[in-house]
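Let us work through a complete example step by step.
Step 1: write down the sequence.
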Amino acid sequence: MVGRLNPKTGEMKLVTSPTPRSNPYGMVISSKGVPFLVEFGAPKVASLDPETMAITEYPLPHEDSRPRRIAITSDDIIWYSDYSRGYLGRLDPKTGKVTEWPSPGGPKSLPYGIASIHDVIWYSESGTKPNTVVRFDPKTEKFQTWAIPSGGGVVRNVSVTRDGNLAMACSGVNRVALVEIKDGRKSH
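Step 2: predict the structure and record it as tokens.
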């Protein structure tokens, strides 16, 4: 299910995904106020009409895709980490076109936590030892990878700080990591 809470009135409205056991997972909001989410139990990305609560699903090209987390760039393009296949995916909701790139760590890299910083995609590969931080520049379609010094454990969530850095929850090693970004690149 996906829900909406009105903090002023306390009203909660829930809707059920059209795909059984789709497991809605991760959410971002577009510049037009439309929530987008990934369906970890299905090979789909979905959007939710904020007025009617109608769910629109966008099928991914591979049946075994399992998108785990989601990010959005300033042009309202959706990015997802395909946990099961080791891919980074891009969805244009206007056309439904999906483009995918194999993650540098390979098919068992288990891409997980993901964010967009100045329209550059940052995510972690949780299946590599140590876990990695991956930078993907959509303009050049080039990847850069750095090992997480603590090993990472499993980086399930990442957040962008107010000053444009990347905070990572390294849950398997009981740490929080900070990736300092300088001019769109990792500084250290």
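Step 3: interpret the result. The chain has no helices and 19 strands.
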